[in-house]
Design goal:
Strand order of the largest sheet: 4-3-5-14-6
Helix content: 40-55%
Number of strands: 14
């Protein structure tokens, strides 16, 4: 039995909460996952898990084994990375999470360029606007657009992210064009669950206005709001990296262009500087250089 592989499979089963989910994540059959866990139990001569049709739970021995397995796997990954670095190459897998809109517009092309420089590396990109536990999900890097970073994570700024108010020409044709921030109160507005859903703060030359807007369509995903805006559902806040191409092709129109929402920062977040792998460091440096001249 490959004991290192068995430890990795056991750890994945615990993290995913089921043999089937671990099998899908590791691209193994469920039978093979079961065999690895059984072999680990046979080697240690203990029961690691209590299995029922509904859930898995660790025995006391399983809790201790999980802790030790994670330590061994971390050391093994570090050893592999150190040896690869000595040989002048990067290899292994990087797991990254980011918002779907930024991933599609900019991060996926950037990662493609990075992988072209490092053919022994693989990257898994998980998309979604919701924050995730980086340690629990074994995420190496989170790319988030935020005004304030999570104090429990290390943050490295990648670029500024400015936003615009936009609407479809058809919507403005039916409902009129706002001339002042206060006019937004009489319009249908689109709200993002994480960015000022119903209270919009706008700035012009040092003048600040806060407007309570009626949100007729809310979502937690930026690209859904873009689709709603293009369909004429109302006025929405959009990041420039999404809005500007659609303004250029006439799908959307900038609303109150002299008034700017607060500027956000595109940040790379990771759990700790102490165990940052060479591959993660290389990707961070690559992204900083790639996005340095962008002014979204």
């Amino acid at each position: 039995m490959d004991r290192l592989t068995a430890m990795r499979v056991f750890s994945e089963v615990v993290e995913r909460g089921s043999f089937s989910a671990a099998a899908e994540r590791l691209e193994l059959s469920r039978a093979m996952v079961t065999r690895h866990v059984a072999a680990l139990e046979q080697w240690l001569d203990v029961r690691l898990m209590q299995r029922t049709t509904r859930r898995l739970s660790l025995t006391d021995a399983g809790e201790q084994c999980l802790r030790r397995c994670r330590q061994v796997l971390e050391l093994a990954d570090e050893l592999e990375a150190d040896v690869a670095q000595q040989a002048g190459e990067l290899r292994g897998e990087l797991r990254i999470t980011c918002a779907a809109s930024f991933g599609q517009a900019h991060l996926a092309p950037a990662i493609a360029g990075f992988l072209a420089l490092h053919p022994r590396l693989t990257v898994t990109l998980e998309v979604g606007d919701a924050a995730v536990d980086l340690v629990r999900e074994r995420i190496d890097l989170a790319i988030r657009i935020t005004a304030e970073a999570d104090p429990g994570l290390v943050a490295r700024p990648l670029a500024r992210c400015r936003s615009l108010l936009v609407a479809a020409p058809a919507y403005l044709g039916r409902n009129g064009v706002p001339r002042r921030p206060e006019d937004l109160a009489g319009h249908r507005c689109l709200g993002h669950a994480r960015f000022g859903r119903g209270l919009w703060r706008l700035v012009r030359a040092g003048e600040v206005r806060e407007v309570q807007v009626p949100v007729r369509f809310g979502t937690n995903e930026t690209m859904m709001m873009t689709s709603a805006a293009r369909a004429g559902a109302g006025i929405g806040l959009q990041p420039r990296y999404l809005a500007e191409p659609l303004i250029a092709d006439g799908s959307l129109v900038a609303v109150l262009p002299d008034w700017q929402p607060p500027e956000l920062t595109i940040q790379a977040l990771y759990p700790s500087r102490r165990r940052l792998s060479p591959a993660v460091r290389a990707l961070l440096d690559f992204l900083v250089a790639r996005f340095a001249e962008e002014a979204w």
